[in-house]
Amino acid sequence: MTPVEWLWIPITIWAAFAQTIRNAAQKGLTASLGALGATLVRFLYGLPFALLWLFGVKALGNFAWPALNLAFFGWVFLGSVSQIFATALLLRVMAERNFALGVAYSKSDVIQSALFGFVFLGDVLSHGAGIAVLFGTLGVLLLSPPDRERPFRALLTGWTTRSALLGLASGTCFALSTVGFRGAALALPGTAFVMAAAFALAIAQALQTVALGGWLLARDPDVVTRTFRAWRPSMLAGFMGAAASVGWFTAMAIEPAAHVRALGMIELLFSYVVSRRLFRERLSGLERAGLALLAIGLVAVALIR
């Protein structure tokens, strides 16, 4: 492969790392802003940085503005709305009694991204890459099982529960958002991938800010007010959220969405290792097996074509 074709690997790893920092920053805001307020921070405070990135890319690369078309706006709308619904469904999962099962099923988004990428964009996975995606997904499930004693039995027998169905729906929406954002970049033919990604990101963040912000203004305007008052801590979450999105959008402009999402599972490895280092907890046999499978999947998806 050419150097550009390999570029998606470090970009994806950066995106996963930045998302880990963003998640930590958002977690600190949830207590004061609520889950949806902390989610709005991601879009509202990330938008200025996304616009700054867009104009910086255009100026440094001396790129022309992309020629817009209905397909581009359709893909951006699909990605943006799906991402909002995915987050809302995941929040519902966490409110369920058996949320662990629902969260486990939400992690099917990597496999669903491969399916939707093939159906809507014609992205074809090789047999080796498909195996890598499967290994990585199994590793993630073992690291956060719904039942530590019988993890696979719980997944097989619990899929008809409300929590599981909400989790599957969340995974579906996350997968659709991934495919939508890749489709948006591909719908700008003749545009350099970095410019296409930057432009799609700016439009998506603007749409998400207006959609979620408008909904909160109508339903609970006090949340929006508190979001503006908490601008200092929100800046870090917004900046790192935009930095992560720059990575995801750029990587997906180069590589099929399923490959990017699969390698992006390294985010869990970052979070898991940091957590274990901080709390000095020992790994169980199940967790060691999960880490091993995840590592195999991450290496394979990066190397197997």
Describe it for me?
- This protein is mainly alpha-helical and 305 residues long.
- It has one domain (3-303).
- It is built from 15 helices and no strands.
- The mean pLDDT is 83.
Distance between the termini: 10 Å
State the secondary-structure class: mainly alpha
Q: What gross morphology would you assign? A: globular
Task: Give the uncertain stretches in residue-range form.
Answer: none
Total domains: 1
Question: Keyphrases for this structure?
Answer:
305 residues, mainly alpha, 15 helices, 83% helix, 0% strand
Short account of what is shown:
This protein has 15 helices and no strands. Helix content is 83%, strand content 0%.
